[in-house]
Amino acid sequence: MSPYDPSAFPAFAVTVDLVVLTVRRHALCALVVRRGEPPFQGRWALPGGFVRADEDLAEAAARELTEETGLCAHDPVSPAPGNAAHLEQLATYGDPGRDPRMRVVSVAHLALSPDLPAPRAGGDANSARWAPVDALLNQEGGFAREDEQPAQLAFDHARILADGVERARSKIEYSSLATAFCPSEFTVGELRRVYEAVWGVVLDPRNFHRKVTGTPGFLVPSGGTTTRQGGRPAQLFRAGGATVLNPPMLRPEV
């Protein structure tokens, strides 16, 4: 008989939490849900949920992403279809007191996509919304609307959100991840506004154009033009095959 006794060890649960980022109205925004059940009932939180017994972490994160946004996850080294989002594992959070219900370890994931649809609440959430990350991370994770007071995000989600935002900010320096915020075909100006929104800076248009078009494999002309931004027709590009940028797009010091 095996000496192993499962009852001798305390039970704990595993969850996935999602930092879902998009650019809306030229601002970097994150998806948050208002919790409809204890603990932290009525507080805003990142979307997520418990990992089911028959799924691995990637499957759980993809399921939660679909339930909250209607998007599917795609392989980060392959082009994303129109209804897919970049999804990658962010970090693991296991402070013993992070969840008052029991010992819960959360494996957070980062999701990025352009033009995300209006969010819909699911699971134990009773509403969902997009909010600028600067507002969410101010006042220790609080933000306010006209009808509510600022309040800290539930659990340790302010820390998880901050880690996800910093991951996105750093990765667009040396990888082509910024194109995950763009439609399949985009202008250099639209890509520049992604960098400006994620980094929170204003970039020189001419210098930016020279850098991104001169970086091997970063952008590929699609052959078309658009006037959707107003003014003269602008050349359309799509993401090239490069996943690592050389030279990198260094973040300006602020």
Automatic annotation (TrEMBL):
SUPFAM superfamilies: Nudix, Winged helix' DNA-binding domain. One of its GO terms (molecular function) is hydrolase activity. This is NUDIX hydrolase. It comes from Streptomyces scopuliridis RB72. Signal peptide: none annotated. Residues 10-156 form the Nudix hydrolase domain. CDD domains: NUDIX_NadM_like. Keywords: Hydrolase. Belongs to the Nudix hydrolase family.
